[in-house]
Design brief:
heterodimer; A: alpha+beta; Uridine Diphospho-n-acetylenolpyruvylglucosamine Reductase, domain 2; Uridine Diphospho-n-acetylenolpyruvylglucosamine Reductase, domain 3; Enolase-like, domain 1; five-stranded antiparallel beta sheet; 38% helix; globular; B: 163 residues; alpha+beta; 2 domains; 5 strands
Chain lengths: 294, 163
Amino acid sequence: MKAFEFVAARDSEHAVQLLAEHAPSARVIAGGTDLLADLKFSSHVPGVVVDISRAQDLRTLAITDEGLNIGTLVTHTEIMCSPLIREMFPALVDAAHTIGAVQTRNLGTLGGNLVTAVPSMDSGPTLVALDAKVTVAGPDGRRQMPLTEFFVGPRKTILKPDELLVEIIIPKENLGKPTHFLKFGLRKGQALALVNVAASFWVDWDKNVFIAPRIALGAVAPKVIHAPSAEAYLEGREITPDAMAEAGRLAVGDAKPINDFRASAGYRRDMIAVLTKRALEGAYALAQAKRKKT
Amino acid sequence: MVTVTINVNGERRTASVPPETTLLKLLRESFNLTGAKLGCDVGDCGACTVIVDGKLVNSCLMLAGQVDGLDVLTIEGLATTDRLHPIQKVFEEKGSLQCGFCGPGVIMSTKALLDQNPNPTLHEIRDALAGNLCRCTGYTKMIEAIQAIAREGTIERATAKSA
């Protein structure tokens, strides 16, 4: 690796100070699973690497007035092991489990995965399906935005060089919303998604209809996207296998998959339909199981 | 330069290294602990696997400055000069390693698994080894070794010794 300076931040405030001091030539390191892999093969090396891995205030994982707040430094392993998340959002656990392997899940952070803004990221779809927001801190203070606006394009976020992603928030109204995540890759271990999908909805049990349905697709557009036509189709509609299959077909039209060495666009389109339907089935099964419990 | 002090295999060691030095390089070149190997250098192969503060990690993906003050356990911390660690012993008996390049990483992953879960299922074992690539022996004999350790309860000895 080419030489750079290394500074460690004590907390998020200190990290923002350090970024203000060293931007635009600074890069943030947390888990390092993406940054170091990049820097080793990049000719463009930052002047300063700001280590935030010791900033304890970025490790929170708690229910607040806003909803479920997940600190940017919470690792994929911590998501998998959190009793709170296991109970409320098994889809987040499943998504975290599909990332890398034990070693990289112990290091890699949720914030880091989002900041890379790789279209195939496995943390993205579930959070987008749950209408997650993010909080960004910079020299002028903090601002919030929907996660979908945080992503700008492939490997591009809205973050300015002196800004830091500090937390991810699943809004209060979506706590416990039945959600299911599916990833389709070429292998089970350490593979990037060809397509990944999350589906989320409440059920009106009196009428057995979809309420606030959300479908999020990864790896099939420049960033993680909603499938708006599928969502609109399902809203208020009776929950049936046919409706789920039709939503899958509509979701295909919302995506813009590319051809690459992993799969053709046509294959990805077929998989969107299949996975969307299955993700809806999974979320419905979860909703039914939750209802039985209460 | 950054000055890094780590507790490696129970011993406090300090080195001054350039900031871009990875934990792997620190271990191998400053502390002469060459058990952890440089394979892919991007976190895919697991040859560099060590345990930092109880967590299994790729040492090629951490900067030395990030581990300052932390506990690091490497393959050298398992065996003594006169006795192999029980995991190593079973791997030897079962012929679970041929060239051995991936071995230190595989054994550290096995240790991290068994420390948390002394009686893993086949699926859990495979999941635990997903971050360790072996290109010659294959995984079957490694999995058999881990199952044998779990079956024979060798792990009580394994964890007791390294605690």
